[in-house]
Amino acid sequence: GAGVSQSPSNKVTEKGKDVELRCDPISGHTALYWYRQSLGQGLEFLIYFQGNSAPDKSGLPSDRFSAERTGGSVSTLTIQRTQQEDSAVYLCASSPGQVAYGYTFGSGTRLTVV
Amino acid sequence: DAKTTQPPSMDCAEGRAANLPCNHSTISGNEYVYWYRQIHSQGPQYIIHGLKNNETNEMASLIITEDRKSSTLILPHATLRDTAVYYCIVRVGGNFNKFYFGSGTKLNVKP
To answer: Which of A12, A40, B49, B111 is the most buried (most CB within 10 A)?
Structure first.
């Protein structure tokens, strides 16, 4: 597609359940990023994939969070045993992977843990 | 972790130029300055970036001081649709593409 696609757009889950969030980057973009944004807050970096390199997981807040990127394209962010503090908008972005380019963001997945 | 400082909010009259300042006094020689904006309930949108020289595109102009310690994003004729949070970002040294977003400036364009 023309842009970064994220699904679902909204997700309500019960505390303790696992959730999977999906990101389809722009075709050909080698770099993919996950950020999250809590209500009224700035963006918090979570994880970054670049080509076939090992991902930069330095922003993941706990071991309940994991992400994978299959075939260098689609990425899935998994949150296990969700907590109420996980409620946020999860944003995915992709870029061509060169320093001079910016990101293109998706519209995000709004996660609400009840 | 953000290496930038921005005022939390600014007001601008519709049709006037909006000048958004950003301080990045610890910027390294190979780090670019990027600007993004986030309109309510949407993902951030890339605006412009630069290294040393001033830059202009269809959305905005970027003025970077000679010492590169600060920059200004200029929206030449602000409209109500430009109301958003504007983020100034420098690419963190040692990591090729990871960005840290600070708190940004909430620009309120008023009729």
So the answer is: B49
Q: B96: pLDDT confidence band, cut at 50, 70 and 90?
A: low
- Considering only CB atoms, B96 lies closest to which of A99, A103, A108, namely A99
String of DSSP letters for A42-66? -EEEEEEEETTSPPB-TT--STTEE
Q: Using the 8-state DSSP alphabet, how is residue A99 labeled?
A: T
pLDDT tens-digit profile of B48-80? 999 888 999 999 999 999 999 999 999 999 999
d(CA B68, CA B82): 26
Q: Which residue of B has its CA nearest to A90?
A: B43
B28 touches chain A (CB under 8 A): no
A50-106 residue pLDDT tens: 888 889 899 999 999 999 998 879 999 999 999 999 999 999 999 886 655 678 999
Of A85, A92, A89, which Cα lies nearest the Cα of A113?
A: A85
Q: Which residues of B touch A97 (CB under 8 A)?
A: 97
Q: What is the mean pLDDT of chain A?
A: 91
Chain A nearest-CA distance from B13, in A, is: 24
Interface contact B44-A56, CB threshold 8 A: no
- Write the burial class of residue B100 (CB in 10 Å: 0-12 exposed, 13-18 middle, 19+ buried): buried
Q: Which two tokens stand for residue A77?
A: 């962010």
pLDDT in tens, A52-68: 888 989 999 999 999 99
Contact call for B104 and A35, based on CB within 8 A: no
Question: CB A99 to CB B46 under 8 A?
Answer: no
